[in-house]
Amino acid sequence: MPWALTVENFTLDGKSIANPLRSFIFNRNIKDHISGDDPDYSKPAGYETVRYPLSGLVGLNDIEKTKAHNAKYPNHDINTGLLNSNIISWLTSYIEVPQNGTVIRYETNVAQKYVDCLTAPNYTVFSNTSSMAEWNDNLAAGAHPVVALESPHNNIHLAVGGCDVPNYDRSPIPGANGDMGENDTAGLDPIFFLHHCFVDRVFWLWQKRHNATDELDIIKGYPGTNSVDSQGPTPGTAPNAWLDLDSPLDPFRNQDGHALTSRDVINIETQLGYTYGPGSLENLISASLAAAVPVQRVHVAGINRSAIRGSFLIAAYTVIDGTKTHLGTEAVLSRWHVSGCANCQTHLEARAAIPIPRLASGALQAAPIGVEVHTRDGLLAPHLLAGAARGAPARAAFRFEVR
Q1: Burial state string for 166-202 with b = 16 or more CB within 10 A and e = fewer than 16
Q2: Stretch 135-152: mean pLDDT, rounded?
Q3: How far apart are the first and last CA of the chain?
């Protein structure tokens, strides 16, 4: 991460001040009114946001565990190194699979997800993971799943927030619960704004690649385009309303006081007066991005978000030569108390379609495929399918199949 986001102090006009981009100190309480007499996600005025490897859980249920955890990490510079290593791991992970006397490298990282999202065929599936999941559930066998921009966006939230993936070095520190990893507090970490600037830039790159700088296609009535879908309540819009380019973007207003709409802000250059200089992914606007390795898909469904505290990870893995090998992860950026959110009750299921190499022969052909759901409270009923049974859904807290 750029040093400006992590250095403890900054010299301004010859004076050393606390770096305002490193953290934010709450100026009022955030009160968890949902969990009765024993709130577990309240945060008091004066609380300072934290990132991996620290924990920010300070409710009655977690305060002592948080104190004990954070006491293990007293050195800011060492913590910054751990944070950077964690993010690098998320951005660059890959596996090497032996096949016919050679080795095939297969990317399992978030950087590849940003590349893949540029190939999403329409704005609807590019824009959100609910539409992405519906599209992927209906793909022909062997087709590469589409990736919504929201998917790598979620991964970075959890990488900075420190969602744990035991037995895999993405996040090896149990108890790391930073604010960027939870919907309730993510927007209060200053890095949130820089992260979303990058997401906005990738949005613009997708628009240029697909000649969509002045118009966006929304599939009418498609899952993910309703005001009660998993993105949360839509301000100024009636419940169970279908969203389109003319839906109000409350609370944003034009000079006449009318609510802005998506149609008013599609083109950042001609309508909003800004643009982005050259940078990463720019060379992919016109490049061919066909997948180099044919894939199968691990489809995961039936995960009930109401039973899970906060954000979580859906991870696929296999065992090659006795070694557990990570195949891919879908991050779910969620609320701490889904069960107490009336809007969330309309969209409780979390799904994923994780691509894995489809090799004609070699180590992965008959290897067992497994899925783990990693929550803040540990694993959610993991299970493994042997190669011969890959097409059979498992019966557990969730289900999956390979196709």
Answers
A1: eebebbbbebbbbbbbbbbbbebbbbbeebeebeebb
A2: 92
A3: 37
Please tell me whether the peptide bond between 239 and the residue prior to it is cis, using omega within 30 degrees of 0. no
CB 384 within 8 A of CB 367: no
Q: Can you read off the two tokens belonging to residue 28?
A: 């009022």
pTM of the model: 0.90
Q: How many CA atoms lie within 13 A of 40 on its CB side?
A: 14
Domain boundaries, the chain: 112-157+192-284, 289-402
C-alpha to C-alpha distance for 303 and 308, rounded to whole angstroms: 9
Neighbour count for residue 20 (Cβ, 10 Å): 11
Averaged pLDDT of the chain: 85
pLDDT for 326? 84
Cβ atoms within 10 Å, residue 337: 19
Q: Which two tokens stand for residue 359?
A: 């090799």
Q: Which amino acid is at 179?
A: D
Least confident of 280-289, 330-339, 375-384: 375-384
Task: Tell me whether the omega of the peptide bond preceding residue 53 falls within 30 degrees of 0, making it cis.
Answer: yes
- Report the C-alpha gap between 138 and 58 in whole angstroms: 43
The answer to whether the beta carbons of residues 338 and 306 sit under 8 Å apart is: yes
Asked if 379 contacts 371 with a C-beta cutoff of 8 angstroms, the reply is no
Correct CATH for 289-402 of 2.60.460, 3.60.70, 2.60.40, 2.10.109: 2.60.40
